[in-house]
Inverse folding.
C-alpha cells in the first residue's frame, strides 16, 4: 500500500482552517479552564515565594539559633551548659494577663512577654517610633501592640499597668519575628523588661507562665555539636526546644497544608472547568460528524480526522492554560494582602517559573484528558455518514474508557501531590467522585421525571421549555454537574462558617449562662474576689479549684516506655500534656456517668483514689475501669485508679475537665481557682474588670463578648480568604454555564429559527428559553444545596459534635442567586435569535 | 491502461439488524464497470442504490462478497488503507454537497490534493475553480454560496485528485432543474476531459440516460443492466 502523504503540517493547517470560523467558540470552551489554572498558579507561586521567604528568613522566624521553653523555671544547668559553649542568651517569661490603661480605664487580657537580653538576635521587633525595641529594657517601659493601642485610644507616652506596675508606653509594636497578625489579634503582645517581673506580682503559684531561653551560637559554631551532643541531652530533660531547622520545618509544614488546601480548591475549579470543556467539546464534535465523514470519504484516515480536532483542542488547552498562568501570576500579587494576616513573614512576590510551568502542564493535561472522552470517538466515525446521515456506529467503542481512567489517575495523583498522603488523596478523590455521581444521578432523575410526568396538556410554551430538559443534545447533565458543584462548594462554605459562629454563640447566648471567666485566682483571694463580684452586682455562677499535674505512669509503665512502644496505641497528646484537674463530690450538669462509680470523697490517706476520666481521654489512654494512673502533682507522685468514665458536654459554658478527682486528695496541693459570672451590659463588664485589675492584677478575665468579637474578626478574615478561593469555582461554573448556553444556542438555533419562521412571537421564544434555564438553574442550585447540606451535616456531626440547623435565608439567597444568574445568562445568549431575521441568524451560525 | 474493469463486484450482500430480525438491503449483486465508462444506478427508494455505492467506494463493509477497485481488493484492507485507496483513486459528489462549512471554497477543493501530498495544491485548486467558473468566489465560505455554486465547488473537489473513478450520489437531487442541468453538463464535461469512470446514483431518468449504461435496482438486487438506448 502506498504511504500516506499528508503529514503533520497538513493536520495543523486543517486544524487552523477549521478553527477560524469557530475561534470564539473554541476560546469559550477553554476559558472555562483559565480560572482554574490561574488559581492554581497563583496559589502555587505564592507558596513557592512563601517557602523561599521562610528559607531566607529562617533565623529571623525564631529570632535565635535555639529556643528552649518550659512550663516551669528552667534550671541553671541549661544556662551553664550554654555558657560553656559560648552561646549568647536572652530570656523571656511569657504568659496571659490583664492590662489596664489608666488613661481611659480600659482593660483587656493580653500576652505579656517579659524579656531580657538582646532578643531577637536575628530579625527585629518593628516599632513606632522606630528602634524602640532595644531602648525599652532600660527602664520602667513597655512596648504595646499597635492594635491594642488603637483599641484603647492610647499612644506612646501614655501608660499601661501590668500587674502591680505601671509602665510608660515606649512605642507601639508593629511586627514581631515569628508572629502572625492573626495571632496578635487573638493575644496582643505587651513587652516589658524581665527585670520588672518580680514587681508586677504576676509570678505566683499556679500562674501559667512559659519560660524561655533564646540562644545565639558563636561564630563558626559546628552544628554537629547541636546534633550529637546538645540535642540528645535536651531530649533527656522535659524542656521543649527548637532550632532554626525545626522551626522552619514546622512553619513550612503548616503553610504547605494551607497552600495544599487552597490548591485543592483551585483544582476543583479546574475540574469544573474541564467538565465544561468536555461538555462543550462533545457538542462541538457532534456537529463535526459530517465533516469527519466527508474527510474520510476524501481519503483521510480516522486518526488524521481525530488529529485535526485534537490539535485544535490542544492549542486551545495551551492558550487557555497560558492565559490562566498569566492571570494567576498577576493574581498572586494580591495574595499577600489576602493571606498576609496569617503569615509570619513578609512575602516578596516574584514569578515562580516552576509554578507557571506546572500550572500550564496541569491545565493542558486535564483539558486534553477531558476532551479526549469525545475526541477519541472521532476515529470510528464511518465515512458512510457523508451519504447517509442516519448511520450509527454499530460496534460499541470502548476507547473512551482510556481517558476516563486517565482522568481518575490524574485526579488521584494531583491530590496526592497536594496532600502528601495517599489516604487523604483517595478520600478527596472519592469525595469528588461521590459529589459528581450524586449530581449526575439527580440530573438523570430529573431528565427521567420530566419525560415520565410530562404535562402533555399544558400550554405549548410550557411543554417546549420542559421538553428541552430531556430532548436530544439537552444540557441538563452538564449544567447540573458544573453549576451544582459550584453551588455545593459555596453553600458548604457558608454552612461551615455558620457552624463555627454558632458554636461560639451557643456558649454565650442563653440567659443565666456565664459570659465571663476569671482565672488565676489564688486560694487566698477567692473570698475577696467573690465579695467583689457580688458587690458589683454580678452573680458567682461557679467557682472551681484547679490543680495542674502531669501523667507519670499508666498501668505500671512510665512515659518513656509508653512513647517508645508504638504498639501500645496510647495517643501522644495524653502523655506529654499538662492536666488541669479539679475535684468535687458530685457530677456537674454537663457530665453523664457512662461506666463505673463516682467516688465522692477519699476517707483517709491510705484509701485508694478513684479518678473519673472523660470518655475520649480513656480511649486514647487505652485504660479502663480499675487501671492504675500515676500523676506527678508538682513534684509529688500520686497513685490513682480509674473509677469511672464520663461523657462531657463541652458545648456548655462552664468549667469542664478531662480528669476529675474526688474530694479529700488535692485540697492542700498548690492550686488556683476559676470563677464564672455573668454581666448584662458592656459597661457593667468594663467597670467590674477595672476594679478587678486594680485590686487583683494577677487575675485574668476572659470576656466572652471580646472573644466573640475576636473570633468574628479572625473568621471574617479566614472566610474572606476562603470565599476568594470559592470565587474561582463559582466563576468557573458561570463561565461553563455561559459556554454551555452558547453551545446550546447553536444547537437550538435551527429550532428557534424554525419556530420564528412558523410565526412564534418573541415573547413565546423568550418564555421557552427562560423556562428551560429556570428549570436547569433551579435543579442545579437545589442539587448543589442538597449536597452542601449532606456535607454540612457530616461536618457538624464529625467535627463539631452538633447537628446542623442551616439558615434558611442563606440557602434561599444561594438558590435565588444561582437560578436568576442562570436565567439571565441563558436569555442574554438568546438575544440574537430574537432580534434578527431568521435567515440572517442561520447564515451567521455556520 | 488495461482492459481489466475498474470496478469488479462479486456476490455482494449487505445485511442490517433491525430489532430482532435481519434485513438484507443488498442481495448477491455482481457487476463489472469498464474503465472510462459512465454508469447510472437507478431504482426506487430503499432499492439498495446508495448501499451499493457505499460498498463500491469502500465506505462500508459488506456482509459477504467482494469489491475490487482499480485492481485493489478492498475486502482485506483496514479502514485507513481504504481511505488511502479513496485518496489515490476515488472522487465523490454528494447530494447535499458536503462542503466543509469552516473552509473556503478554495480550501475545500485543496483537501484531496493536500491529502495526496500535492505540492501545487493551491494552484491546481484555483484552476479547477476556474473550470467550474467560481474563481471569483474562491475565498467564500459555503454558507455564502448558493446551492448550485456549492455543488460546483463539490464537483471541482471531486476532480481535484484526478480520480480513476468518480462516485456521484444524486448530484442534482437538491437543485432546481436549471441549476441541476448546469451541474449535469459540468460533470459530464469534466468527466470526458479527464477520462474518468463515472458511477452515478440517481432518481432522475433524464440524467441516467446521459450515462452509457444504466443499472436498475429493486429490492436489493440488480433488476436490469442495459445500455442507454434500451432504457424506457
Amino acid at each position: 500500500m502506498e504511504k500516506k502523504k499528508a503529514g503533520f503540517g497538513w493536520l495543523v493547517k486543517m486544524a487552523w482552517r477549521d478553527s477560524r470560523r469557530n475561534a470564539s467558540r473554541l476560546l469559550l470552551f477553554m476559558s472555562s479552564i483559565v480560572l482554574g489554572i490561574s488559581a492554581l498558579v497563583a496559589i502555587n507561586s505564592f507558596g513557592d515565594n512563601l517557602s523561599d521567604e521562610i528559607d531566607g528568613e529562617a533565623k529571623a522566624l525564631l529570632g535565635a539559633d535555639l529556643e528552649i521553653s518550659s512550663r516551669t523555671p528552667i534550671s541553671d544547668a541549661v544556662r551553664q551548659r550554654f555558657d560553656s559553649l559560648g552561646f549568647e542568651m536572652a530570656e523571656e517569661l511569657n504568659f496571659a494577663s490583664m492590662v489596664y490603661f489608666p488613661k481611659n480605664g480600659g482593660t483587656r487580657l493580653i500576652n505579656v512577654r517579659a524579656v531580657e537580653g538582646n532578643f531577637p538576635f536575628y530579625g527585629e521587633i518593628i516599632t513606632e517610633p522606630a528602634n524602640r525595641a532595644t531602648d525599652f529594657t532600660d527602664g520602667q517601659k513597655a512596648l504595646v501592640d499597635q492594635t491594642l493601642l488603637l483599641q484603647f485610644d492610647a499612644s506612646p507616652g501614655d501608660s499601661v499597668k501590668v500587674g502591680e506596675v505601671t509602665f510608660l508606653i515606649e512605642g507601639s509594636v508593629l511586627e514581631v519575628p515569628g508572629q502572625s497578625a492573626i495571632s496578635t489579634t487573638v493575644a496582643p503582645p505587651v513587652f516589658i523588661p524581665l527585670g520588672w517581673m518580680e514587681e508586677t506580682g504576676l509570678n505566683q503559684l499556679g500562674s501559667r507562665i512559659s519560660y524561655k531561653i533564646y540562644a545565639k551560637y558563636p561564630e563558626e559554631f559546628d552544628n554537629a555539636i547541636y546534633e550529637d551532643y546538645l540535642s540528645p541531652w535536651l531530649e533527656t530533660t522535659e524542656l521543649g526546644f527548637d532550632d532554626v531547622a525545626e522551626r522552619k520545618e514546622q512553619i513550612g509544614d503548616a503553610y504547605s497544608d494551607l497552600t495544599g488546601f487552597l490548591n485543592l480548591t483551585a483544582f476543583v475549579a479546574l475540574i469544573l472547568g474541564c467538565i465544561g470543556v468536555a461538555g462543550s467539546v462533545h457538542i462541538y464534535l457532534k456537529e463535526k460528524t459530517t465533516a469527519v465523514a466527508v474527510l474520510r470519504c476524501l481519503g483521510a484516515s480516522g486518526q488524521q480526522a481525530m488529529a485535526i480536532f485534537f490539535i485544535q483542542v490542544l492549542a486551545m488547552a495551551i492558550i487557555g492554560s497560558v492565559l490562566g498562568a498569566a492571570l494567576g501570576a498577576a493574581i498572586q500579587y494580591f495574595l499577600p494582602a489576602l493571606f498576609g494576616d496569617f503569615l509570619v513573614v513578609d512575602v516578596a512576590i516574584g514569578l515562580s517559573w516552576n509554578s507557571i510551568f506546572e500550572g500550564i502542564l496541569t491545565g493542558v493535561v486535564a483539558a486534553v484528558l477531558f476532551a479526549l472522552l469525545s475526541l477519541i470517538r472521532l476515529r470510528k466515525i464511518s465515512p458512510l455518514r457523508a451519504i447517509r446521515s442516519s448511520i450509527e456506529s454499530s460496534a460499541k467503542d470502548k476507547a473512551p474508557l482510556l481517558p476516563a481512567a486517565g482522568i481518575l489517575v490524574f485526579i488521584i495523583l494531583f491530590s496526592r501531590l497536594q496532600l502528601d498522603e495517599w489516604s487523604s488523596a483517595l478520600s478527596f478523590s472519592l469525595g469528588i467522585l461521590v459529589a459528581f455521581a450524586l449530581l449526575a444521578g439527580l440530573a438523570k432523575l430529573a431528565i427521567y421525571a420530566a419525560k415520565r410526568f410530562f404535562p402533555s396538556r399544558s400550554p405549548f410554551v410550557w411543554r417546549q421549555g420542559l421538553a428541552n430538559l430531556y430532548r436530544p443534545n439537552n444540557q441538563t447533565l452538564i449544567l447540573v454537574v458544573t453549576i451544582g458543584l459550584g453551588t455545593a462548594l459555596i453553600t458548604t462554605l457558608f454552612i461551615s462558617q455558620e457552624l463555627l459562629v454558632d458554636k461560639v454563640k451557643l456558649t454565650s447566648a442563653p440567659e443565666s449562662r456565664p459570659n465571663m471567666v476569671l482565672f488565676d485566682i489564688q486560694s487566698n483571694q477567692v473570698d475577696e474576689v467573690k465579695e467583689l463580684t457580688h458587690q458589683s452586682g454580678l452573680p458567682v455562677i461557679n467557682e472551681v479549684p484547679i490543680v495542674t499535674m502531669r501523667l507519670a505512669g499508666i498501668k505500671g509503665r512510665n512515659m518513656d516506655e509508653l512513647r517508645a512502644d508504638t504498639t501500645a496505641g496510647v495517643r501522644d497528646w495524653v502523655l506529654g500534656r499538662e492536666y488541669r484537674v479539679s475535684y468535687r463530690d458530685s457530677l456537674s450538669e454537663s457530665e453523664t456517668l457512662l461506666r463505673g462509680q463516682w467516688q465522692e470523697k477519699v476517707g483517709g490517706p491510705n484509701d485508694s483514689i478513684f479518678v473519673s476520666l472523660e470518655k475520649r481521654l480513656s480511649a486514647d489512654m487505652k485504660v479502663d475501669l480499675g487501671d492504675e494512673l500515676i500523676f506527678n502533682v508538682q513534684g509529688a507522685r500520686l497513685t490513682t485508679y480509674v473509677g469511672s468514665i464520663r461523657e462531657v458536654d463541652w458545648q456548655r459554658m462552664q468549667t469542664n475537665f478531662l480528669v476529675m478527682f474526688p474530694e479529700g486528695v488535692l485540697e492542700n496541693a498548690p492550686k488556683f481557682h476559676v470563677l464564672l459570672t455573668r454581666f448584662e451590659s458592656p459597661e457593667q463588664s468594663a467597670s467590674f474588670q477595672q476594679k478587678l485589675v486594680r485590686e487583683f492584677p494577677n487575675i485574668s478575665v476572659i470576656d466572652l463578648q471580646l472573644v466573640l468579637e475576636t473570633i468574628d474578626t479572625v473568621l471574617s478574615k479566614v472566610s474572606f480568604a476562603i470565599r476568594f478561593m470559592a470565587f474561582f469555582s463559582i466563576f468557573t461554573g458561570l463561565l461553563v454555564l455561559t459556554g454551555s448556553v452558547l453551545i446550546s444556542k447553536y444547537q437550538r438555533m435551527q429550532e428557534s429559527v424554525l419556530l420564528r419562521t412558523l410565526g412564534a412571537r418573541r415573547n413565546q421564544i423568550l418564555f421557552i428559553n427562560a423556562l428551560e434555564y429556570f428549570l436547569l438553574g433551579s435543579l442545579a442550585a437545589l442539587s448543589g444545596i442538597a449536597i452542601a447540606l449532606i456535607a454540612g451535616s457530616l461536618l457538624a456531626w464529625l467535627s463539631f459534635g452538633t447537628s446542623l440547623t442551616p439558615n434558611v435565608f442563606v440557602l434561599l439567597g444561594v438558590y435565588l442567586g444561582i437560578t436568576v444568574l442562570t436565567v439571565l445568562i441563558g436569555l442574554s445568549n438568546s438575544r440574537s435569535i430574537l432580534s434578527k431575521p431568521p435567515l440572517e441568524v442561520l447564515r451567521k451560525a455556520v | 491502461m488495461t482492459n481489466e474493469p475498474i470496478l469488479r463486484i462479486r456476490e455482494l450482500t449487505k445485511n442490517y439488524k433491525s430489532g430482532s430480525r435481519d434485513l438484507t438491503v443488498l442481495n448477491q449483486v455482481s457487476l463489472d464497470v469498464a474503465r472510462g465508462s459512465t454508469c447510472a444506478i437507478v431504482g426506487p427508494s430503499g432499492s439498495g442504490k446508495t448501499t451499493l455505492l457505499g460498498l463500491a467506494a469502500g465506505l462500508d463493509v459488506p456482509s459477504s462478497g467482494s469489491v475490487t477497485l482499480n485492481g485493489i481488493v478492498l475486502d482485506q484492507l483496514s479502514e485507513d488503507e481504504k481511505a488511502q485507496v479513496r485518496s489515490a483513486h476515488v472522487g465523490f459528489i454528494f447530494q447535499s454537497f458536503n462542503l466543509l462549512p469552516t473552509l473556503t471554497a478554495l480550501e475545500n477543493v485543496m483537501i484531496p490534493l493536500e491529502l495526496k501530498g500535492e505540492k501545487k495544491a493551491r494552484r491546481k485548486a484555483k484552476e479547477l475553480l476556474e473550470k467550474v467558473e467560481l474563481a471569483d468566489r474562491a475565498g467564500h465560505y459555503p454558507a455564502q454560496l448558493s446551492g448550485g455554486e456549492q455543488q460546483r465547488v463539490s464537483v471541482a473537489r471531486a476532480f481535484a485528485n484526478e480520480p480513476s473513478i468518480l462516485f456521484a450520489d444524486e448530484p442534482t437531487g437538491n437543485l432546481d432543474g436549471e441549476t441541476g442541468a448546469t451541474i449535469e453538463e459540468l460533470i459530464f464535461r469534466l468527466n470526458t476531459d479527464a477520462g474518468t469512470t463515472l458511477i452515478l446514483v440517481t432518481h432522475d431518468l433524464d440524467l441516467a440516460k446521459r450515462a452509457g449504461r444504466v443499472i436498475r435496482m429493486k429490492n436489493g438486487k440488480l433488476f436490469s443492466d442495459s445500455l442507454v438506448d434500451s432504457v424506457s
User: Anything to note?
Assistant: Chain B has a mean pLDDT of 87. The longest strand of chain B covers residues 21-33. Strands of chain B lie at 7-18, 21-33, 38-42, 64-69, 72-73, 90-93, 165-169, 197-202, 213-218, 221-227.
